[in-house]
Design a protein that fits this description.
The protein is built from five helices and six strands; from the N terminus they run ββααβαααβββ. By secondary structure, it is α+β, with helices and mostly antiparallel strands. The chain folds into two domains: 33 residues, no CATH class; 81 residues, Winged helix-like DNA-binding domain superfamily/Winged helix DNA-binding domain (Arc Repressor Mutant, subunit A), CATH 1.10.10.10. Helix 2 packs across helix 3. The protein is globular, with a radius of gyration of 15 Å. It holds the Pfam family DUF2256. InterPro entries: DUF3253 (IPR021660), UCP037205 (IPR017136), WH-like_DNA-bd_sf (IPR036388), WH_DNA-bd_sf (IPR036390). This is DUF2256 and DUF3253 domain-containing protein.
Amino acid sequence: MPPADKTCASCGRRIEWRKKWERDWDDVLYCSDVCRRRKVSAVDRELETGIRTLLATRSATATICPSDVVRAMTADEDEWRSLMEPVRRAARRMVAAGEVEITQGGKVVDPSTAKGPIRIRRRRS
């Protein structure tokens, strides 16, 4: 029986166990070479802080859009668009840490497979 899946340290997506990683599974941190090179930057940490800050200013049941986070951080339209995927990665890492949930249509979804518009909310018990 394969061990439990892990979460990529960079993008927050699920890393599924592979037979070729059997001996090294405990050392696997990233889902791909791209994520291994990217790692988690200072900007990524700022985005996580931005998500926490924005959620703290809203009611306990409120959700936020990833674009709300990046628009609060920058007014530059080009930079705003380039930060959309990094803020989604930050949200996925925060889901893995148990801080937030990602929803679509009001329902919690798997962040590894969510496609299209998402919302971020505080984790509910």
